[in-house]
Amino acid sequence: MSTAKRDFLIDIEKKYQRKWEDEKIFESNAEKQESEKYFTCIPYPYMNGRLHLGHCFTITKAEYASRYQRLKGKNVLFPFAYHCTGMPIKACADKLTYEMATFGCPPNFPDEDDEVQVEETVDFEKDPTAYKKKKGKMEMKFGNTKY
C-alpha cells in the first residue's frame, strides 16, 4: 500500500506550519498595532472530561469569526484554555482522595483473578416490579469500570 498521498499532504502541512511560524501569522502584539482590536471569548470546557463534538462545534464558530476578523485586518485575540474551577475540580479531588485511600499511593490495584462477582437474584414472582441493576450511571457513561 502506497503512502505517497499521505506523505504529500504531510509535506504541505509542514511547509505552511513553517511559513506561519516564520511570519508569526498567529501571534498578536496589541501594543504595536494601530488596527482595530477584536477579542473572542467562549465558554471553556472543564478539564475533568474528554473533549467531544459539542466542544468542537462551539470552538469552530468562534474560530471562524476570529479568522474572518483577522482577514479584515483587525488585531485578533482568541485565547483557548480549560475552565478549572468549581465543582468539577472538587469532584476530581474527591475521586483522587478516594482512590489513594483505597489503593494507596502509588496505587496497588488487585489482580483480575482476585475479583469476586456476586450475582444478585430477584424473585419476579413475588414482586413483578422488581428489577436488577446491572450497571451504575458512571459505568454506563464511561464503560466497564472494575473499581
- Can you list the strand order of the major beta sheet? 1-2
Radius of gyration (Å): 26 Å
Strand content: under 5%
Number of strands: 2
Anisotropy-based shape: elongated
Q: Quote the distance from N terminus to C terminus.
A: 43 Å
3D structure, described in words:
With 147 residues, this protein is mostly helical. It has helices spanning 4-23, 53-71, 87-103, 137-142, and strands spanning 37-39, 75-77. The chain has a two-stranded parallel sheet with strand order 1-2. It starts with a helix and ends in a 5-residue tail after the last helix.
List key phrases describing it.
4 helices; 147 residues; 4% strand; two-stranded parallel sheet; mainly alpha; single chain; 42% helix
Concise structural overview:
By secondary structure, the chain is mainly alpha-helical. It is built from four helices and two strands.
Please outline the helices and strands.
Layout: H1 4-23, E1 37-39, H2 53-71, E2 75-77, H3 87-103, H4 137-142
